[in-house]
Amino acid sequence: MTRQLSPLSVAEDSAAPILELQNRSPSGICRHSRVERQSRSGEEGTQTHTESSSQEAEGQTRCQSCTSTFLKLIWRFLIILSVSSSWVGTTQFVKITFETFDCPFFMTWFSTNWNIMIFPIYYSGHLATAQEKQSPIKKFRECSRIFGEDGLTLKLFLKRTAPFSILWTLTNYLYLLALKKLTATDVSALFCCNKAFVFLLSWIVLKDRFMGARIVAAIMAITGIVMMAYADGFQGDSIIGVAYAVGSASTSALYKVLFKMFLGSANFGEAAHFVSTLGFFNFIFISITPIILYFTKVEYWYPFSAVPWGYLCGVAGLWLAFNILVNVGVVLTYPILISIGTVLSVPGNAAVDLLKHKMIFSVVRLGATIIICIGFLLMLLPEEWDEITLRFINSLKEKKSEDHSEDMTESSVHTRSRSRANGTVSIPLA
């Protein structure tokens, strides 16, 4: 029999799927919302992990930069301290040696011979640090370019080395003669005048830029020299010692200016090669001078065992260390740090003279020393110091004006909020 469907049954059959869909729809929506929440939470977790990892990376980078900056400061401080202490030690060792061995030229010649070891020390450092190591002959030829494209020839050896070797010997010999007449503090302070002499010679010979601050520094250096000579009334050993010290500073300045004129700038290897060449020239050609002084009894010692070889080796070793530190410091750090280390030898020698030798410094000598040191520090100003100072002042003014405008903005916002809280409106005047 064929079943007849009533309208009611048709309606019931048609409504069943709808009810079924209605019954299923809430669970489907819940599942969909759960999936969305899980995906959102996963994205938020990924973003949080990424942010935390980036913050950790930034923290590590800052920590590494702070550590490297701290290590650089420590390294520069050690360079300054080493330069100052080596120069103070050299000066004090010379004073001690003079008590038993009064032969300044022999001491100068003996110490200069030690310069031969500078290039071998440099090559040892090259072997220890360089990735591509070179043979000694190849490295020697490479560093010989300071004398020209053809390297070191016999003609250039005599032409370029002889004048610089003579100036080197004169500088050290006059410095030792000055130490026989004056205290270590006075001599080290007067020797700092070489910076002013370098500027004057460079301005005249090399046509360097004129700087008013350095002219003032040169005048201060000359004033300190006159005051130092006046300390004992322009008489006795004082005026002679001042003349020796000023002569040493002058020959040192001439050495530096001529080096810049004929040889230009040099890296550490070229400088080590050149100084070793000076020591070799000193050993070959200057050795006749102490022999002549010995037989003429100008610098005579007897017996041979009476020579204080320990003190002489101490002077030569400290002098060698100072020369190496100067050349290494200029390459690895800034030349200004070497100059600061040199000028710090003045208070270092003063401390030794005061504590060990019980020296009493007069007001005139103390004033002269301070004036010379201030002049030396003025010489360290860069050539663009005036432009740098103006830029710094302008930046401070701009920062101050920005801070003032920010304060005005904050105060106006605070005034508006207060007026709104009180029910009034503040109208700015035109």
TrEMBL record:
Q: Where is this region: Disordered?
A: 32-60, 403-430
Q: Which residues form the EamA domain?
A: 78-229
Q: Pfam families, per this entry?
A: EamA
The beginning of the lineage is: Eukaryota, Metazoa, Chordata, Craniata, Vertebrata
Q: Does the keyword NAD apply?
A: no
Q: Which domain of life is it from?
A: Eukaryota
**Which stretch is the leader sequence?**
none
Q: What is this protein called?
A: Solute carrier family 35 member F4
The family database entries (InterPro entries) matched by this protein are listed as: EamA_dom, EmrE-like, Solute_c_fam_35_mem_F3/F4
Its keywords, alphabetically, are: Membrane, Transmembrane, Transmembrane helix
Comp. bias intervals (Basic and acidic residues):
33-43
Q: Which organism is it from?
A: Cyanistes caeruleus
Q: Where is the composition biased (Polar residues)?
A: 44-60, 410-430
Is Transmembrane given among the entry's keywords? yes
- TM region(s), chain numbering: 73-94, 106-123, 157-175, 187-206, 213-233, 239-259, 271-295, 301-321, 328-347, 359-381
Question: GO terms for CC?
Answer: membrane
